[in-house]
Amino acid sequence: MTIKSKSEAWSREVTVRAIRDVLPLAIAVIPWGLLAGSLAIESGLTPLQAQCMSLLVFAGAAQLASLNLIQLASPWIAIFSTTFVISSRHLLYSAVYRQEALKLPRLKRYILAFLLTDEMFIVSENYRKETGAFSYGYAVVSGLVFYIVWNIASFAGIVLGGVLGNTDELGFEFAVAAIFIAMVMPGVNNIPVLGAVLVSAGVAIVAELNGLSYGILLAGLSGMTTGFVLEKWRGKSS
After folding, report:
1. Segments making up each domain of the chain, as ranges
2. In angstroms, rounded to a whole number, what is the distance separating the alpha carbons of residues 201 and 195?
3. Of all residues in the chain, what percent are helix, strand and coil, respectively (each to 5)?
4. Helix H segments across 165-214?
5. pTM for the whole thing?
6. Distance of CA 226 to CAs 10, 113, 195, Å?
7. Which pLDDT score, from 0 to 100, does residue 7 have?
């Protein structure tokens, strides 16, 4: 994997392509952002604190989980451990870009790390597979577009929180599932990946129905193990 030259990485074509690719996912996350903003106010945060959470944390699932724990007056260690587990998938994302990131100046690495989200990763990986090279410009533009839309949506949720009332009744939580389904489904193109998805989904459902702690972590580990075993089996049988 190579990094494109500076002029190519920041070309108008790459910038427009990045905006076009990530915009549907950014628009789809608006209900999620509305929920995060309104829930922050319901949890007792001031409007400034609520907006700073989206500006500085910029992690939808971790924000929602931590806000729920704040409402329950959970100890800080529970909040920290839960958000750490939820965000641990970013370790895998960053590992994919490690070799490319090491070639970048420190400031650019920090920017890439801050803007790294599920959505930015998936569109950047699709672009890399299409072009054969990792584009820093594409990754940053797509991540920045998502960051801007997320914060606008969060701000709207903060402002409209009182008008919307109990946001739990509006079904905004489904936006989370819908976005991940939209990102995952195009990649389900072989038996190992399909097995990983089905097992992860099954374990996540069972964990949720039984109130098991760290259900997301269990689902992820189960899915990865299933995919690995099926890939090995497919290799031996071919």
Report:
1. 2-187, 188-238
2. 10
3. 80, 0, 15
4. 174-184, 191-209
5. 0.73
6. 39, 29, 6
7. 44
